Amino acid sequence: MIKKWYFYASLIVIITFLSLGFKPFNLETKPWFLIEKTDGSEYIFPSQEEDDYPILKKLNVPFTGKRLIGFKEAVAFKESQGKYRLVNSLGYMGKYQFGSKALRAIGVQNDKAFLKDPALQEKAFIALLSKNKWILRNEIEKYEGKIISGVEITESGILAAAHLGGAGSVKNFFKNKGNRHFRDAYGTSLKSYMRAFGGYDLSFIEADSNATIND
Question: How far apart are alpha carbons 121 and 98 in whole angstroms?
């Protein structure tokens, strides 16, 4: 009887020891469903390996709705396939392919730091949208809803075209009634951006002539 008691007592001790061995004493819990502070990584897929998402290769752009987030991700996919650290052959940088001149206009001074900071790139995109919306406010009011050179003009289409070729090129497009076709160094036209990115709701974006990343 005593031997049996020792056997069961020893068995309990061994099981308890093994259980503790697989459980940390200091257990940190992090809520997966609530993020109070973001760094821009919420715009990256859980895995950053493109091969993990073969369905994406079959799509031209990801569909994420017709609001601001949908607009951002559609433009980003067209510009860089959503890659924050991409630098193209002309020196345009990041997820949204900014040039140095555009970055300086919205308060970004360090290109290398910009490439390494997803949150900063997201702020920069919003700041540039705000600045271009102010610069092109008259064109948006005058031409939105009209058909010019075969393209239905929308606010989001105008702002996408400004991201591609600058606000000045968009003004010239309307000044010449769409007859002068601006294309970037890779042959992409303003008209193609106006058409592809038309119809998004960007009412959330405020027109601001002094918009910067610090706003």
Answer: 9
**Whole-prediction pTM value?**
0.70
User: Taking the chain, what is the end-to-end CA distance rounded to the nearest angstrom?
Assistant: 79
Per-residue DSSP letter, 147 = E
Which residue type does 141 have? E
Residue of 197, 6, 12 whose CA lies nearest to 96: 197
The DSSP code for 87 is B
Q: How far apart are CA 126 and CA 143, in angstroms?
A: 23
Answer whether 165's CB lies under 8 Å from 157's CB: no
Which of 161, 167, 157, 155 lies closest to 188 in space, CA to CA? 161
Q: How far apart are CA 117 and CA 92, in angstroms?
A: 15
- DSSP class of 202: -
Cβ atoms 84, 74 nearer than 8 A: no
Q: Do you know the residue count of the chain?
A: 215
Q: Tens digits of per-residue pLDDT, 49-79?
A: 444 444 344 445 455 678 999 999 999 999 9
pLDDT in tens, 114-132: 999 999 999 999 999 999 9
Neighbours of 136 (CB within 10 A): 22
